[in-house]
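question for whoever is on the cluster today: can someone run the full assembly for these? two chains, 1181 residues total. i dont have access anymore since they changed the login thing
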Amino acid sequence: MVGHGPGPALENANPLVFRRSGERPVTAREEDDDLPDAIDDREIFDLIRSINDPEHPLTLEELNVVEQVRVKVNDAESTVAVEFTPTIPHCSMATLIGLSIKVKLIRSLPERFKVDVHITPGTHISEHAVNKQLADKERVAAALENSHLLEVVNQCLSARS
Amino acid sequence: MRGARRGGAMAALRALVHDFVSGLQDGPAPEVAAGLRAGSWTALDVVEALGSSLEHPEPRTRARGLQLLGQVLLRCHGALRHAEVTHLVLFFEARLKDHHLVIPAVLHGLHALSLSEALAPGLAVSVLKAIFQEVHVQSLLQLDRHTVYTIITNFMRTREEELKSLGTDFTFGFIQVMDGEKDPRNLLVAFQIVRDLVLKGYALGPFVEELFEVTSCYFPIDFTPPPNDPHGIQREDLIVSLRAVLASTPQFAEFLLPLLIEKMDSELQSAKLDAVQTLSACCAIYGPKELQEFLPSLWASLRREVFQTASEKLEAECLGTLTALAACLSHAVLHADTHDPLDTFLSGVLQDCRHHLCEPDMKLVWPSAKLLQAAASASLRAYHHIAGSVLPLLLEQYNQHPQSSQRRTILEMLLGFLELLQKWGHEEGDETVLLGVRAPLCSVVFSALTDPSVQLQIVGVRALTVLGALPGLLVASDLDLAVDHLTRLVLHEEDPQSSMAAMEAAGTLAPAHPGAFTDHMVRALAQELQTEREDEGTRHQRCLQALAAVSTHPSIVRETVPVLLQHLRHLQRGSEPGDTGKTASLCRSLHRVAVQSQHDPESCSFYHQAVVPCLLGLALQAALQEDALLAPGKALLEEEALTSMVPVISAASTHLSPELAVQSAALIVPLFLDGDVSFLPQNSFPCSFQPFQDGPCLAAQRRLVTLLMAFICSLPRNVPVPQQDRLLRELLALSCACDCPFAATAAAKCFAGLVNKHPEGPQLDEVLQLALNRLEPGLAEGPRRTQALGLLLWVTKALVLRYHPLSSRLTDKVLALLGDAELGPAAAEGLGLLLGDAPDVLHRGCHADVRLMYRQRFFTDNVPRLVQGFHAAHSDVKANYLKGLSHVLNHLPKPVLVTELPTLLPLLLEALSCLDRGVQLSTLRCLQPLLLEAPRALSPHGDTLVTKFLSLTDSPAMAVRIAALRCIHALTSLPAPGLLPYKARVIRALAKPLDDKKRLVRKEAVVARGDWFLLGSPGR
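^ ran it for u. tokens below:
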């Protein structure tokens, strides 16, 4: 499913680094036992912003691969749509990054959600192919059966030491 | 007669010796030693008695005989005389030539003798020579090798001069002894010996390289302690110990530096890290001479690690080492005819990094900036060299990049260089580098402050803070402009982060430029407070915060405090019920000012005299109106408002000068005892102030006792409290008799605060007796048992803190009440109160008598009884004991808890099933850190823990669900094999909390579930 694993040569060795947004401040409403909090864009963004890039010791947020404005959630209809932007248009890691986002969301969201992860239109040369792979449930499941791939995805999802 | 006694003693000795040598019993050795110490026989007698066994043809018997002698000597080496020692040493030395089975016993004997102070000069050298010559140390067992190292260490400690007379023979001998050593325990000792050889100036002669080889072959340390290692030697111990050897002398430099470069270039992260850290340690003792030849390679390696950083830790170490290198070069003594090694080095650094700063795509800017900053922070000279070249470049770059995000990056780098300048302090650091770029720097900073991007604004504010703190850098017009910018951000910037940053910057800069801040900022804020608008809520809030933040200089405090008090009066006039939030936030600002002015005597006394009478006056005014609880101004009497005044008064009183404290106490105590209002600013009240009198309409007045507490309990211990005895009696009476819980608690706390500081003696005993007399009937029965319990708890706390003998009796009463059907739950909460920190009284900040370790002491004294009480208690009240226990455990330092865990764990597990939410919560909060810190102890209980934690994720209380999920997350730190059987179940069960209605719960569920997914998976 992925072109090649992280080889010795980095494709984009020195990307521009963006600042991490801080922890979401806790509001009084959130601390009230009785009031329900809907799942919102920021909550979804917080799930994926700390995913590690497969190549760099940086997060997807720091690389601007994911942005809060490109996250759309509808709690009532149980849908989530995330657009991500590869750092360079020919990035071979795009599928892997998309897969990491998808796995993270599947692990972190209630089962009722339909999760759609795709590339920001016009930012990658093989945008459609990647999107198609990410949308195919069976291919995603098969990819996670591959222990090498699972290892790389898990590394992306591990907390940074 | 004497001969007969001696004959008897010798017979006894021979019997003991026989039992040891032939009977193979170990018991006689201490007896022989005791006889020797008591003078029943001498050391030579023992040798004589051993006689035949020492010459026995079987080496094992000879060894056994020597073993006895060695054990006896180890116990009695202090009692030996010169001649005896000499004989014994020569005797043992001769035995070194004996059979190899005998050697360990001989070494032990020599070890015992090496401890003797009666060792004649020359013997130490002779022992060592004999060992070096006769013994092949590395073929001995670990313990015996250790004995050899210990003998050497003993002699090095006591016979340094003699050993040095051996010259290089000693060094060479030792090299042969340790060559090939493999045991970590022995290596720790051996490394220490090598370090002493170097540092204490033993002759190394031609053996420098050998000595280096024999130790450096262990570098980098690759050692993992075996599981269940009883010796507790960690990899880190060996690393530190070896590093101390390698970095002990510049003589090793020519061998060490190539080795370090080789390891820095290796693939192994740990080896890189160790090499970099060792290099850093070496820089402390090396000079430019040692480094010179290797600088290009060292720089290349460090640069590569920072440019291709794989771990933040390694990057930080590399940067630190670069600083150390440059600092080392900065210390060089310059000669007229040689070039400065620092300049050469820094020019290289600049050449490799500078161009990255101006590449249009801004790749590698951060690593380059970090390297440059690390080099520049080595010394002022290095700073000038680097900053002189980089600052103008960065300023130019800022103006070339129009985008906010890029400008922010550039400004952050500039900020890094500005911050470095603070490192040298103002006397030493001249700002000449900055003076040249002052104007462009200011214009860059001001442009950042007006940028629409909040992030850029914040960096601009930080840069301004640093610039303003450097004396003489900002000219008056810049300064006024800066203050105006800050004021604008405080008042008009929508983003709270940015306005908060501006407030803090104002607070930092104000002491250096008080005039500018009072003229511009304080005025503007005061004006804004007076205008009324629709959105005045948040505006006023900001003004109050900013007024507090900027009050960092006495002259500003004089301006801001009246503004704040004026606003408080204004609030009180217009206040309606429910307006307490505004009062509380104003009090928070006042409190901040108090804390900031505490350490300036002038501000402190001004503040106290302005604020305390004003607050008391306003509170009295509210309380003394007819129908005080309904009239306007009532908001001030609400618990929240009064409680928020407590820290203000307390902070205004803790650091008072003794004179002012006495003076103030002489006014405030009579105010409460006799209603003497004469010192208050507005003192015409409709009726008299009698908080301690009985009467239904005095309920409002009694609440003000909390303000008395805030003042009187915050005074330093050496300030006498006027009419203390009377005051204590009144407080005691009020605390037991008052129906209002707020007032009763305030009185009890005030009483406890005074009792805690009361000097020992009959007076204190009398007061405590009075309290007991009140407490006992009060607790027994009647309508006010709760008040009595409150008093009991506060008095107990006061006494537990100061280790007063009566405290155990009072603690007993509290523990006994756990079994009480009515008061039990409150008593259990009370244990939390006893061990927690109270915010307003009985803490060190208000000069209370708090002993170190009182919590540990309480724990050891009382936990066994709590456990006992739990088992004996009726099932209805068992929960109280669990709750009490979990409170005690929650306040205990974790290391203590970990050691006590095995005995308490069954109870904690039981507490998880307790229906009381408080117990559940505190037990979970207690277990969570334990899971992280003592996973081994908890590992066997995986099954129970998983089941109970999972069931608690369904709790109706959000806090319990969160705590349970945190525990489930913490479970993943237990050894993975034990958890894998539960993985599927936990992941399934955690799907539900992912859809919890509360966001904070979902957040914890996501973290926990994510890590359970990773458990046992590749790539974790």
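summary bc i know u wont read the tokens: The domain at 41-157 of chain A is CATH 3.30.300.130 (GMP Synthetase; Chain A, domain 3). Chain A touches chain B at residues 13-19, 26, 30-31, 33, 36-37, 39, 43, 46-47, 57, 104, 107-112, 147-148, 150-155, 157-159, 161 (CB under 8 Å).
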